[in-house]
Specification:
About 25% of the residues lie in helices and about 30% in strands. α1 (about 15-25) packs parallel to α2. The two termini are about 25 Å apart. It has two domains: about 5-115 and about 240-309, 3-Layer(bba) Sandwich (FAD/NAD(P)-binding domain); about 125-235, FAD/NAD(P)-binding domain (3-Layer(bba) Sandwich), CATH 3.50.50.60. It is built from seven helices and 19 strands. α5 links the parallel β11 (about 145-150) and β12. By secondary structure, the protein is α/β, with parallel strands linked by helices. Strands 1, 2, 5, 6, 7, 8 and 19 form a seven-stranded mixed beta sheet that branches. Bound molecules: flavin-adenine dinucleotide. Flavin-adenine dinucleotide binds next to α1 and α7.
Length: about 300
């Protein structure tokens, strides 16, 4: 079996940036696209905050451009998911969903993280049309609008507070009567006159028209009363699942499953690097993912150079 210089797992902004850099460095990367080629940005419409596009760009188009750029330098894409890796010895071994095995001297893991959804009908098609899992990304589109944020942790408080810069009213819908968020984050949200809380409440239906979200049905979990609430935007802030199940017991992770890295993209195993949302539960932006993909690629190059001496 041929031993690859570098295998890249995942084709969001992190993996595709790593692909562009390693391909230009003539490392002939093989990139596994997984079940969601292009990653999370293919789920959205307008991306307004990726530098270089003064008029914004549609998420799927941005990702298609990144792939095209990698292909220009002969990056080799394989449309399958990696199901298993053996990192206990080198060369590392990867097995994909077709049971095909690959050997690689280095691996870049850029498998991202998936936002948690409530599981209500219509969610997939409403993403980017009134439903969002990223307040930082989409808040700007809700100037003077009414929005609802679902969640009770730090992210929900932070998202709600951030959204008050744009929206005229922000409601936080939370299942319990107490918040999980830290005290300072709670205080900041509670002292904001634009924010109101709906405790003991759950969104149980999303209402829509041709344009997207128009309202929600909120069930009071104590009384079972159902209220119909108009809203322009619905923001989920109930956490993310990093795509790391196939790496369990092989790499250091935090208690949520995000990969632990040091010095940028280094994992606890020499020659295995991680970049993007899979190792970043804080920034979760396309540009930070792309930046860390570049770091991972440069580390791979230097690691391989060092191996030769
Ligand atoms: C709806 C939405 C809108 C957003 N809007 C913006 C925005 O406007 N601006 C912004 O900066 N950010 C935005 N974000 C956040 C941004 O999309 C993410 O921060 C970014 O995509 C993370 O990139 P990534 O490369 O780390 O991973 P991802 O984009 O999550 O890509 C992960 C990749 O890994 C692959 N993969 C997963 N598991 C495997 C496996 N086992 N084998 C092989 N491949 C695998 C997937 O198929 C996918 O290709 C948005 C996110 C969402 C969900």
């Amino acid at each position: 079996m041929e031993t690859l210089e570098v295998a890249i797992i995942g084709t969001g902004p992190a993996g595709l940036t790593a692909a562009i850099y390693t391909a230009r460095a003539d490392l002939k990367p093989v990139i596994f696209e997984g079940a969601a080629p292009g990653g999370q940005l293919t789920l959205t419409t307008e991306v307004d905050n990726f530098p270089g596009f003064p008029d914004g760009i549609m998420g799927p188009e941005l990702m298609a451009n990144m792939k095209k750029q990698a292909l220009r330098f002969n990056a080799n894409f394989i449309t399958s998911s990696i199901e298993d890796v053996d990192l206990s010895k080198t060369p590392f071994v990867l097995r994909d969903q077709n049971q095909k095995k690959y050997q690689a001297k280095t691996i870049i893991i850029s498998t991202g993280a998936s936002a948690k959804f409530l599981g209500l009908p219509g969610e997939t098609k409403l993403i980017g049309h009134g439903l969002s899992t990223c307040a930082t990304c989409d808040g700007f589109f809700y100037k003077d609008k009414i929005v609802h944020v679902v969640g009770g942790g730090d992210t929900a408080m932070e998202d709600a507070t951030f959204l008050t810069k744009f929206a005229k009213k922000v409601y936080i819908v939370h299942r319990r009567d107490t918040l999980k968020a830290s005290k300072p984050m709670q205080d900041r949200a509670m002292n904001n006159s634009k924010i109101e809380f709906l405790f003991n409440s759950a969104v149980t239906e999303i209402l829509e028209d041709k344009q997207g979200v128009t309202g929600i049905k909120v069930t009071n979990l104590k009384t079972q009363e159902i209220e119909t609430r108009p809203t322009h935007g619905l923001f989920y802030a109930i956490g993310h699942n990093p795509n790391t199940a196939f790496l369990k017991n092989q790499l250091d992770m935090d208690d949520q499953g995000f990969l632990k890295t040091i010095n940028g993209p280094e994992t606890n195993i020499n020659g295995v690097f991680a970049c993007g949302d899979v190792q970043d539960s804080y920034y979760r932006q396309a540009i930070t993912a792309a930046g860390s993909g570049c770091q991972a690629a440069i580390k791979v190059e230097r690691f391989l150079e060092d191996q030769k001496t």
